[in-house]
Amino acid sequence: MKVVGIIAEYNPFHNGHLYQINKIKEKYPDSIIIAVVSSSFTQRGEISILNKWDKAEIALNNNVDLVIELPFVYATQGSDIFGKGAVQILNKLNFDTLVFGTEEEDISNIKLAAEHQLNNKEYDKIVKKYLDKGLNYPTATSKATYDLSGYKIEKPNELLALSYIKEVIRSKKKIDIVNIKRTIDYYSSNIENNITSATNIRKMLSNNENIDKLIPYNRDKLYKISMNNLYQELKYQVIINSNNLNTFQTVDEGIENRLLKYVDISNSYEELIYNIKTKRYTYNKLSRMILHILTNFTKEEANSVIIDYIRVLGFSKKGQKYLKEIKNKIDIPIITGYKKNISKVLDIELRITKIYSLITNKELVTREYQNKPIIK
């Protein structure tokens, strides 16, 4: 029996995700599918329009067997930290197969690039050379990888795949790596066979367009929100922390000065990012930085986090049986809700839920304490 790991944000869950799960079931009919899923905010610094409990229920309704929370401290970081947290959780759960979507069918070049980044002594030197020229970090790493492997890795899912593969290599465990070619590009606004990108679904939802055929559940579960709904809270955080903004995670190299300059004259999240953006800072990096300020996520917190618990959001009967079988082999607690004095990471997660609930559903805070895993 294969134990297949999926790393997902489900922002929102859509027919493309269902396509991926169905392909896994075709390839591995008797498999256990474990999904490690972001909760309230995403890797690109955006707010999730689907809360984690609904994500878990929808995933379980569509053949996932075990849904595990990817903590905020990993879920909202650059691809390497994001991938590290997710793969380490899957390793704790004894998975043997990692499946992800990519724009390309052949990922041999991504595997080669991963080997270069990990083992080629010239890699860090070349990255530094490009950084010294004023390029941002993602561009510098992309150029260094191209110089060594002859292959450009630029698309979002390829960058994530690269990070996943590197973490699998670091783990030194025998993990099968399997990709499923996406039918739609990450940012695409095209719709083919009722499949489109999550980006396009969020855009359509905000424009009051019909998305019913693009998701396998009722659209009423989706929050019609964006980071703009939290812009006043962000401005407050910037004002009261104006003298110590560089203590927050991913605030570095003096970018806080541009933030202070433009926060008073910008009218929205998007406008602020547009105003402070420079050649050295990508949109995604700035989005994550601003999210970390909003949520009071500091460098000190980020530097002290480890995977020290596994939080189960839901399971099928098959997933529940599997979890019981491996429970005694797992060296960290398996939890189903918030409890004090378990983990700094879990304490941060509660704080994040409280912030998320400001513009979604206040009952989500109570559910942190009271909810048991969803069983299907």
What can you see in these coordinates?
With 376 residues, the protein is α/β, with parallel strands linked by helices. It has two domains: 239 residues, HUPs (Rossmann fold, 3-Layer(aba) Sandwich), CATH 3.40.50; 76 residues, no CATH class. Strands 1, 2, 3, 4, 5, 6, 7 and 8 form an eight-stranded mixed β-sheet that branches. Strand 2, helix 2 and strand 3 form a beta-alpha-beta unit. Helix 16 packs antiparallel against helix 17. The longest helix is centred in the middle third of the chain and has 16 residues.
* Order of SSEs: EHEHEHHEHHHHEHHHHHHEHEHHE
CATH domain class name of the largest domain: Alpha Beta
Tell me what portion of residues adopts beta-strand conformation.
Answer: 5-15%
CATH topology of the largest domain: Rossmann fold
What is the CATH homology-level superfamily of the largest domain? Answer: HUPs
Please provide a brief summary of the model.
This protein is α/β, with parallel strands linked by helices and 376 residues long. The chain folds into two domains: 3-103 and 157-224 and 306-375, HUPs (Rossmann fold), CATH 3.40.50; 227-302, no CATH class. It has 17 helices and eight strands.
